[in-house]
Amino acid sequence: MTLSAESSVLLTDLYQLTMLQGYFDQGMEDTAVFDFFVRRLPRQRNFLVAAGLEQVLDFLEHLHFTDEELQWARDSGRFSGDFIDWLAGLRFTGDVHALPEGTIFFADEPVLRVTAPLPQAQLVESRLINLLHFQILVASKAVRCRLAAPDALLVDFGLRRAHGAEAGLLAARAAYIAGFAGTSNVLAAPRFGIPVFGTMAHSFIEAHDDEMDAFARFARAQPDNVVLLIDTYDTEAGARKVVELAPRLAEQGIPVKAVRIDSGDLAAHARRVREILDAGGLHDTGIFASGSLDEYELRRLLEAGAPIGGFGVGTRLDTSSDVPYLDCAYKLAEYAGRPRRKRSEGKATWPGRKQVFRRYDTAGRVEADTLGLEDEDPPGEPLLVPVMRNGRRLAPPESLEAIRRRLADNLALLPDELRGLAPATPLHPDVSAGLRELARAADRGTTTAASS
């Protein structure tokens, strides 16, 4: 069986299908409401960034079981024939409300709400969490890099260390949303329109008998993008060779755009290399650095005055190494017109169809959020918007440029302490009186206060 992991409905947990068999047997197809949210912020994150909605909508819009997938279900012996016949016609026909990508959010706030017949809303749980969790994770890491280095060129270099092909591709998208200039991942260009950047590897230098020859040949091969890796043998000696080579290249109309340093004390090397380049008249040749970078190392380098204009951020970004996962969940909030909620210790949820209302202070900065019912009207701007109705998008996909602008606007409205890298007192939403009463009604098992 050959199946595309990105689109296969079998990319799910087995219990989604076994529950569907149970729902099918009992005729449980009334409308359900599920929320995706993050229970709590890690200490190293003062806020999170909504990302991944585009992939979720694409998944929902095209959801169906192929003949191969249905045959696997039959061959597994786990499911009834009538149920498998029913799966053949299954499509997502529900509604989706979501935070637009690039919106900053906090713990307990719904990022996405699915309203659909129970089997449909249940089936999509695992893939929705998978898609949203990862891009939120990387975008929230990447934006901290941008905050640490607001004026530097930042490029995603993490494909080779990403946890799989899809992760590498979606990490490039998430980083671009967060303000990175682009990525080294070539497929991100035709897939998402993200600018791609590339230099050279140490192996290119090592494959030549002479470092100067390697520089010259690469420059002639890529005359419009000459970024020379100078630390294969001796960083400062490499810089001097660039100074020696540059006039000959200039005669051919080939400028040396930058040199790249990938090892050692980046700040110290950059200062010495800058002196060498300037002394050789290469004032316009920049310095690009890579190697185990993250927001903390970017801040350290820039605070040390390192003359570095651009950075390739890789492993620690695409794996979100300091916070490799978020405590996120997709939970039932309503079924058959009645509020539902989980009351497990430490994992209690809020019932009903909810909205997040954001308030701003007199200076226009974010002051507080309120988690309330959809039909309440507390002060503040409602953040969740309808994005899908009856299984179809309500608008074409947003451009990544529009999402980048939204995030930049959101960042500008955050209090300074939340924009810093140091842990700050977390902003946690207030809970409206109406939502608290609905929770009490759900606990009593009544229907009188059910949301509609």
What is the top-level CATH class of the largest domain? Answer: Alpha Beta
Number of domains: 2
**What's the CATH H-level homologous superfamily of the largest domain?**
nicotinate phosphoribosyltransferase
Helix vs. strand class: alpha/beta
What form results from the Cα inertia axes?
Answer: globular
Portion in strands: 15-25%
Number of strands: 19
- Low-confidence runs (pLDDT<50, min 5 residues)? 447-452
Oligomer category: single chain
Rg over CA atoms: 26 Å
Number of helices: 17
Mean pLDDT score: 96
Largest sheet: spatial strand order:
13-12-1-5-3-17-18
How far from one another are the termini?
A: 44 Å
Largest sheet: 7 strands, antiparallel
Helix content: 25-40%
- The name of the CATH architecture of the largest domain is Alpha-Beta Barrel
* CATH fold type of the largest domain: nicotinate phosphoribosyltransferase
Can you summarize this structure?
This protein is an alpha/beta fold.
Question: How would you portray this structure in words?
Answer:
The protein has 452 residues and is of the alpha/beta class. It has two domains: 14-138 and 325-444, Alpha-Beta Barrel (nicotinate phosphoribosyltransferase); 148-318, Alpha-Beta Barrel (TIM Barrel), CATH 3.20.20.70. It is 39% helix and 18% strand. It is built from 17 helices and 19 strands. The strands form four sheets. The protein has a seven-stranded antiparallel beta sheet. A six-stranded parallel beta sheet has the order 7-6-11-10-9-8. β17 (385-389) and β18 form a beta hairpin. α2 (53-61) runs antiparallel to α6, α3 (67-76) runs antiparallel to α4 (81-88) and α10 (211-221) packs across α11 (235-251). The longest helix is centred in the N-terminal third of the chain and has 24 residues, at 125-148. It is globular. 43% of the residues are buried. Residues 447-452 have low confidence and may be disordered.
